[in-house]
Amino acid sequence: MTQAWAAPHWVRGRVFYQIFPERFHNGDPANDPPGTVPWDSEPTRENFFGGDLVGIAQKLDYLKRLGINALYLTPFFAARTNHRYDTSDYLRIDPAAGSPDDFRALIDAAHARDVRVVLDAVFNHCGDGFWAFQDVVQRGAASPYADWFDVRGYPIDDSPPSYQTCGGAPFLPKLNHANPAVRDYLLGVARHWLEQGADGWRLDVPWKVPLDFWRAFRGAVLQTRPDAYIVAEIWRGAGPWLGGDTVHGIMNYRLRDAILDYCAHDHMDAEDFDYELRQLRAEHGPSAPYHLTLLGSHDTPRILTACGGSTDRARLAAIFQLTYIGVPMIYYGDEIGMAGANDPLCRAGMIWDEARWNHALFETYRRLIRLRREHAALTDGAFETLLVFNGVYAFHRHTTYDHVVVVLNPRDAQRAMRIPLGEAAPGARAWVDALTDRRFAASDDHLVIEQLPAQSGLVLVPEESSHG
Asked: What is the Cα–Cα distance from 155 to 247, expressed in whole angstroms?
């Protein structure tokens, strides 16, 4: 990398875990909203399961067992829906999610375990229950908050909406960021939750908000918490977010698409995959180590479902995710093989009965996360492509003293593979797969693999540095 990227260094050593609070764990049934359904019910866009902040705190030991050391929480502020992207009050926790004391207890318990907590900044739009919007509904143009929104005419009408919305949804009025009062309010919200112990913000649909607001947001955030992490939800081109004046990283959905095309769908061969990775690295430059690498989220089908139910393909995707450049983010339940198509089916209640887990997936995630913790090559190392051959893709992550070689094969079985070791060649005479403990010899600066099964992957470390 040609220059340092101004981002908090702690991020590089983290593995994030995304939690949809309403569906992770019901820790306090006393705060369940009316009509709460049984935990294993089919998720809809309307029903409530009772998950809350107390539930997250109660499961921190599970997350440490997995190896997680950072959380991204979708909204828990006052709202009318189960997803809570329709904020009614940004400074108040939804009663069904918990209390200020519950939030403080969660932050304290997380920090005691060296787990960082990043919150969701839903600042493009509010909900139709937001106090300022309700004042406009009631008082029309006479409301002091009328200019907080882009209203075409009065009285307020929601069918069709007489005001600008997010995506045409009447319950999501868009905020007017040209109004200094709106900006001041939102920046105050950002500062408030950082002062309460949050470690950063994830920006929801940030491309819908003027960049100058996000520049002011960055200034307010870093003035409050100089080590806070700011990451943007980005689905397409990342160019506007790579100037170093708004965010530290993006949610790398474009990389997710490439991973699925290669590992899950066979839409890309290894050459295509390598080309797309090179393009992304060139585009992202020194910011790449701070981008969130994800296979799924609350806005996508789950990874096992995206892989057609194939554990082998899901494992392959996880191997790449957790060994490539960037900060891995796991969507709750993907590590145990939860299935589900797009919203709302990807938002089911977390399965806590271990008899129902996909243990092969869980063990893969656990070992890979441990490997990241043990090998600086995977968090701070350079990247080198070693082999692009039909469906097989091999690469090398390395620092001066640490080496990891990854071999991916989403297609047919291969025999008698000889993989050039590149800059890893001066290392060991044998390499060990950290996932299976299989041993592979090195000869003439090549790794020798007699059998490489279909839809399989290897994560190889020099024999003397393997941990058995």
From this structure: 38
And the tokens for 207? 């491309």
Whether 468 has a pLDDT exceeding 80, the answer reads no
Nearest to 174 by CA among 193, 152, 154, 189: 152
Characterize the bridge pairing of strands 169-173 and 165-166: antiparallel
Does position 426 have pLDDT exceeding 90, yes or no? no
pLDDT at 1: 35
In the structure, what pLDDT confidence band is assigned to residue 466 with cuts at 50, 70 and 90? low
Whether 80 contacts 89, CB under 8 Å: no
| pLDDT tens, position by position, 326-335 | 999 999 999 9
pLDDT attached to residue 237: 87
209-241, pLDDT tens digit by residue?
A: 999 999 999 999 999 999 999 999 999 889 999
To the question of pTM greater than 0.85 for the whole model, the response is yes
Residue type for position 9:
H
Interval 251-306: pLDDT, tens: 999 999 999 999 999 999 999 999 999 999 999 999 999 999 999 999 999 999 99
**Longest Cα pair distance anywhere in the chain, in angstroms?**
81
What are the structural domains, with CATH classification, of the chain? 10-378 (3.20.20.80), 380-465 (2.60.40.1180)
In this structure, the number of other CB atoms found within 10 A of the CB of residue 410 comes to 28
pLDDT at 319 over 90: yes
Contact between 107 and 94 under an 8 Å Cβ cutoff? The reply is no
Mean pLDDT for the chain? Answer: 96
* pLDDT tens readout for residues 94-122: 999 999 999 999 999 999 999 999 999 99
Positions marked catalytic: 204, 233
